[in-house]
Amino acid sequence: MDAAAPATRIRASWRAAAWIVPIAILLLVAPLVLDSFQILTLTYGLIAAIGALGFNLLLGYTGLLSFGHSAFFGGGAYVVAFMVKYLKIASMELFLAGSALASAILSVLFGYVCVRYTRIFFGILTLALSQVLWSLAFKFFWVTGGTDGLRVPTPTLIGFRPTGDKMDYLAHQYYYYVLVVFAIAVFVMWVIVHSPFGKALQAIRDNETRAEFIGIRIRRYRLVAFVISGVFTGIAGALWAPLNGLASPDVLIWTFSGEIVFMTVLGGFRTFVGPIVGAIAFTYLKTYAVGFTTYWQLLLGVVLVVLVLALPTGIMGAAERVFARLKRNP
Amino acid sequence: MADLAIHVLNALLYSSVLFLIAGGLSLIYGVMRILNLAHGNLYALGAFVSAWVVGLAVNAGLPSAVLFLLLPAGALAAAAAGALIERTLMRPFYRRPEEYQLLMTFGLLMILEDLIRFVWGPSPLTATTIYSSIGSIPIGDGRYPGYNVVIIGVGIVAAAFLWAFIYRTRFGVLLRATSQDKRMASALGVNVNRVYILAFTLGCFMAGLGGAVVVPSQSAVLGMGVDALVLAFIVVVIGGLGSLEGALAGALIVGVVREAGITYFPEMELAVLYLIAAFVLLIRPAGLFGRA
Amino acid sequence: MSLLATQALTKSFGDNRAVNGVDFTVRQGEVLALIGSNGAGKTSLVNLVSGLLRADSGHIMFEGNDVTQQKAYDRIKAGIARSFQLVNLFDHLSCADNVALSIFSREGKTRRLGTLASRDSTVWNEAHELLQRFGLDRHASVTAGVISHGERKLLDVAVAYALRPKLLFLDEPTSGVSTREKAPIMDIVSSIVRAGGITVVIIEHDMDIVFRYSERIVVMHQGSILADGTPDEIRRNDAVTTTLIGTHPTGEPAYGGASDA
Question: Smaller CB count within 10 Å for chain A: N or C?
Answer without folding.
Answer: C
